[in-house]
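Reviewers of the previous submission asked for a worked example of the structure-prediction workflow described in the proposal, so we include one complete record here. The input consisted solely of the amino acid sequence. No template or homolog information was supplied to the procedure at any stage.
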Amino acid sequence: MSRNSVIAGQAGFSFAGFLFGQASRFGFNLLVARVLDADALGTYALAVAVIQISEVLAIAGLDSALLRFVSSNSSDPHRQKAVIGSALKTSLFFSLLVAMFLLLLSGYITSMLHGSHLLQLTLCCYAAAVPFNVATMLYGHAIQGFKKLQPKIIATQVVSPLLLLLLTLLFRYTAGQNAALFFPFALSAAMAFFWIRPYLSKITGVLPLDIVHAAPDRVMMLYALPFMVVSLLSMMTHWLDVVMLGMLTDTATVGLYHPAARTAGLIRAVLLAFAGIAAPMIAALHTGSDNVEIGRIYKMVTRWILGLVVPPVILFLLLPEPVLGVFGTRFTAGSNALLLLTAASFMQVCFGLSSTVLAMTGYARLSLYNALGALGLQVILNLLLIPRMGINGAALATLLVFFLLSVVRLSEIFLLLTIHPFGKALWKPLAAGFFAGALLAGARPWLLGLPVFAGFIVGALLAACSYTALMLLLKLEQEEREIIVKFIPFINKETK
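From that input alone, the workflow returned the following structure tokens.
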């Protein structure tokens, strides 16, 4: 099977999984916003920010290390097992240590974020999820090293978020509001781990005793630690707007901001879907010094990503009020923040694959400097803009950071590897997006006159259908036609 087919097939499944996961999380935030209140939503956002930043410390860069070392040792199964066992054993120790520190420091963290006793209790409950989330993520990456992406996607993007949504509904209507906020997060994490656990031995051959008896792998840890710092800085950059809003305002303000941030974040699912399967391929190609093929994949995947994200970007930019109105009328105050955050997510998605290329071609130190610079800049911009502009200041800071980071990474990749993501065929999704956006802009006054849910649904359909029709009119590239014929059976039969 060609690389095009592998990337498209795996990324298609990955994208469907990420889309389902994002929809479930979107539904969870919608549920909290409508059934609880903005303060509870802000409490949840701050707690998840702290937990996800802490989980990066527990993972310790071993996710990136597993992808590289499992792929590069494909001809040595014994070495692959040793690498996986060492990574999982090390991460178990780190995750238990991190969970313990979260429990001990929960009071201090709550005070720093201007939270109430509710936030402290939430942090303590969510700390129990850390070992399960870390294990699930590394089990998934170990399996992904064998170019099997499905188990990780199902566990992290289907099982966990769906259970979070369902358990929240169950606890809310059987045990009350606080129970719905405290318990589903850790329970869904534990269930997702037990779902993925059997796939590790089935696909990789690694048994529980292999993990118990695994020896420390110094070479892998030396490779992983710079990526831990990079991932930590990236995760802090991702959550910094939420955390600094908590530090400089209150949980209710965070609650008003979070729907805009979560909605704009839906766009990133496309990048994560494609980057996940492209990463081990790029690592393997770099081992063979095949920069030409890396460049081809880079252009192709960037074009596919851009082609998929244009419709939601158009919808969020032109109809922010109906989009946020589904959370409740009070959340439409974040419409301007949604505009800025959508532009930031678009920038990140279109050029974010450059970060994967740098990571998989051995430029760990450079990735570290990029992430460190982005974090420092975002701290400064948030300190300057949040007191003056509130949630719009946090969103503007995010946009400026991603714009500058994209420029820097693109320049580095061109200078170091002599590749870039800009292919001739990029004009097609851009042109189709421009005309679809013009159509939606013309219909905006009428759509705003409809009920909130109706305006949102009709606007989404109009953006998606007009864009798709224009893309078909402009004609797909040969690579896209080959993939469609291969993966849609009835078309494949008709062409025989």
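The chain has a mean pLDDT of 83. We consider this example representative of the routine output the project will generate in years two and three.
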